[in-house]
Amino acid sequence: MALEVKINLNDYVWVELTDYGWETIRNYFEELFSNVPTYSQEVAEKSVNMYKKTTKQYWIDRVGGEKIALTKFQLYDMMHLLGPKTYMGNTNCINKNTVYFTIDNFIEAYEGENTHNY
Q1: Is residue 78 part of a domain?
Q2: How many structural domains comprise the chain?
Q3: Which one, out of 38, 67, 76, 81, has a CA that is 20 to 30 A from the CA of 28?
Q4: What is the mean pLDDT of residues 19-35?
Q5: pLDDT band at 112 (very low <50, low <70, confident <90, very high)
Q6: Does a structural domain hold residue 5?
Q7: Could you list the residue range(s) of the whole structural domain that residue 92 is in?
Q8: Among 22-31, 34-43, 54-63, 92-101, whose mean pLDDT is lowest?
Q9: Are 57 and 63 in contact (CB under 8 A)?
Q10: Contact criterion met (CB below 8 Å) for 74 and 14
Q11: pTM, whole model, 2 decimals?
Q12: Residue 2 lies in a domain
């Protein structure tokens, strides 16, 4: 019997963005504002910073003091922002190319790597 899985594009997912993932989001805002007469790099950076502040991030402590930032997206929003840069052979926008549908999925995936305190 096949397992039936239904995913709503409005559901929330958690990902660990790479630096390239954040750069991709910044480039999205640069392109968005490029036709605005008052456009500048500063406007794009402010937009990304505002996006980071309004996007829910969860910090996971790992043994050794390292912290992992999980970013919460609606699935559609993540696909809209990162989809054009997510293809075979390109730099990864998402660490391990893994999307977590619950934080517990993330914890389970990293249990062997000493993750705690979420």
Answers
A1: yes
A2: 1
A3: 67
A4: 84
A5: low
A6: no
A7: 12-116
A8: 54-63
A9: no
A10: no
A11: 0.71
A12: no
